[in-house]
Amino acid sequence: MIHPVAVIGAGPYGLSSAAHLRARGLPVRVFGEPMVSWRSHMPEGMILKSVPSASNIDAPQRGHDLVDYCDAAGVRRLVTDEDLVSAEVFVRYGDWFQQRLVPALERVRVVSVDRRGTEGFELKLDSGELFTARAVVVASGLSGLEHVPREFAAAAPDGPSPTGPLSHSAQHHDLSRFSGKELIVVGAGQSALETAALAAEAGASVRVVARGRDRVRFGVPPWEQPRLRPATPFGNAWSLYALTYYPHRYRQLPPGLRHYLVKRVLGPLGAWWLRERFEGKVAVREVAAVRRITVAGGAPVVQVGTLGGRREELTADHVVAATGYRVDLAAMPFLGDGLRTRLAASRGTPRLGPGYVSSVPGLYFTGMLGGSSYGPVMRFVCGTEFASPRLAAHLAARHG
User: Fold this and answer.
1) Count of other CB atoms within 10 angstroms of residue 195
2) Is the backbone of residue 396 left (phi > 0), alpha (psi -120 to 50) or beta?
3) What confidence score (pLDDT) does residue 301 get?
4) Is the pLDDT of residue 245 over 90?
5) 211, 347 Cβ separation under 8 angstroms
6) Residue 42 class from Cβ within 10 Å (0-12 exposed, 13-18 middle, 19+ buried)?
7) 180 FRET partner, CA 20 to 30 A, in 240, 313, 382, 396?
8) What is the rounded CA–CA span in Å between residue 340 and residue 344?
9) Is the distance from CB of 352 to CB of 365 less than 8 angstroms?
10) Separation CA 75–CA 89 (nearest Å)
11) Cα Rg of the chain (Å, integer)
């Protein structure tokens, strides 16, 4: 019996990987809701930080870029670095890509994956089906990796919730619920700043609390980029060029440096176009640290250490933790104990070799899950251009 390759996840990396594997003639089964993080876990009205050229889902053949979707759908072409890509358009592009290149997508959840002797892997679906795969590609994206610092736990002992005193930014699609409310957004990255701006536009009174080294800053517009440095989708800089186009070298860096760079490079920074929607509409409080978040009278109280060394309390009707995501194999409950104990990891992230293969032969991780091995470009859609063809080539050579 010829077993298929299983791809877990149907976001940009899952769809791109599946398209490349199918183009090589491999039988593939792909599981998940298409573009679910973008469709359901991003605020309505969100605009991608990435420019159009960095928003293409890589395909094995020409004709499937964002501009091709625009032409096919009869919408305005998004081409220059000054064109803004809305999350709504990007989701429709992902759906179009899926329908054309991954038509047999199965909208079911993978409950568990584990080794099955020498035959490959056994997967259980929430439909109750059990089947064997020759190889598994984990492209589950941001799902389950929302990070809330432990200092915030007292405000949400049962976990963050959009209807409680504390939530994570990934839990909001409709920010109009905060109209007429006082809102604190903790964070200084694009997610925090855009959530704050959208909430203010929806009628909320918003403060952004930026912690530690993070400051509220905005990127440089395309027309102000340095002209004598190489261009990348993220700006003109030699360091960005190396990280974008040579991620295979990233694996050779010392572990500590790799983890530092993947966290800090292309880190907390608002998009250039967001500045005018943010400044004057959203209050900013830069503090040394958020010490603790508690609840008094049903409302959250944010205890901060000021830059001057004092302690203060900030109150609001709700706190949004726009504190990002953290890759942690322990947060992927579908990975069976037999796999988890065999996976080589570094600070909770899978250590990957050439072709995005893990220490378990036949088990691959891509997208954000590969960031600690291949660098910060894996946090962005444009990373599919590097990752997907290499993953597919490696898998086909060993499991084709």
Assistant:
1) 26
2) alpha
3) 96
4) no
5) no
6) buried
7) 313
8) 9
9) yes
10) 9
11) 21
Cα dist. 121→97, 249, 284 in Å? Answer: 28, 30, 50
DSSP code, position 153: G
Q: Render 67-126 in DSSP notation, one character per residue.
A: HHHHHHHT-----STTS--BHHHHHHHHHHHHHHH-TT-B---EEEEEEETTTEEEEEET
What are the tens digits of pLDDT across the range 88-122? 999 999 999 999 999 999 999 999 999 887 779 99
Nearest Cα to Cα of residue 40 among 161, 143, 164: 143
**Residue located via tokens 């909430």:** 199
Q: What is the pLDDT of residues 287-336, one digit of tens each?
A: 999 999 999 999 999 999 999 999 999 999 999 999 988 899 988 999 99
Question: Given strand 311-315, what is the order of strands in its sheet?
Answer: 289-296, 299-305, 311-315
Q: What is the mean pLDDT of residues 234-250?
A: 84
Q: Given a cut of 90, is residue 30 above it in pLDDT?
A: yes
In 352-366, which positions are buried (b, 16+ CB within 10 angstroms) versus exposed (e)?
A: beebbbbebebbbbb
Q: The tokens of 92 are what? A: 């429709």
Other Cβ atoms closer than 10 A to 190: 23
pLDDT in tens, 140-185: 988 888 999 999 988 999 999 999 999 999 999 999 999 999 999 9
Q: Is 293 exposed, middle or buried (0-12, 13-18, 19+ CB in 10 A)?
A: buried
d(CA 142, CA 7): 15
**DSSP three-state, residue 211:** strand
Q: How confident is the model at residue 224 (pLDDT cuts 50, 70, 90)?
A: confident
